[in-house]
Amino acid sequence: MSGTPTDLSNFPRLRDFQDQKRIRDTGIQWLALLVGLVLMPVLIALNYSEVDFIREAPFAFGAALLLLAAAIMVVVLSAQNLSQMQRQNLQAYVVRLDEESTERLLFAFRKSHLFSDSEITAIVGLLDRRMPGWRG
After folding, report:
1. Burial classification of residue 73, based on how many CB atoms lie within 10 Å of its CB (0-12 exposed, 13-18 middle, 19 or more buried)
2. CB contact at 8 A, 123 and 105
3. Tens digits of residue pLDDT in 5-38
4. Strands, DSSP E only, in the chain?
5. What was the pLDDT predicted at 117?
6. Which has the closest alpha carbon to 127: 110, 115, 116, 113?
């Protein structure tokens, strides 16, 4: 709650509430799973001659399906975890933003080009709660 209404240098930013390393690590995990899904059938096919591959294709296909199912489950679970983490980060940001004065929020809204869509949405939500009808 420090600073003048026109000084946005210490205005709270959403990125300060996000765990960028965890987001990056999750992205790398997803990329590794996708690369694995592409390379696994190629590696399986390279280990067999054409006749052997046709004879054992159902087993290789079954293994590929199990791998695909496991990869999909990991991606879905990590996406849910990441989504929950993002929601908690946004809630913490809104709590901190709520400590700012209405004048600073209005000034920040006027300088919306400096903020992300999520930050502007949080600012507008707080202004709507504090000053109903402020937009009209």
Report:
1. exposed
2. yes
3. 788 888 999 988 888 888 888 888 888 877 877 7
4. none
5. 94
6. 110
* Residue whose entry in the numeric block shows the structure tokens 């000084």: 7
User: Coil, helix or strand for 86?
Assistant: helix
In contact, 99 and 11? CB cutoff 8 Å: no
As a whole number of angstroms, the distance between CA 86 and CA 70 comes to: 24
74-121 confidence digits (pLDDT tens): 888 888 888 898 899 999 999 999 999 999 999 999 999 999 999 999
Q: What is the DSSP secondary-structure string of 1-67?
A: --S-TT--TT---GGGGS-HHHHHHHHHHHHHHHHHHHHHHHHHHHTS-HHHHHHHHHHHHHHHHHH
Residue 20: closest CA among 113, 82, 109, 101: 82
Q: Which residue has the tokens 């009808």?
A: 133
Angle of helix 117-130 versus helix 102-110 axis, rounded to 10: 140
Contact of 3 with 11, CB cutoff 8 Å: yes
CB contact at 8 A, 97 and 126: yes
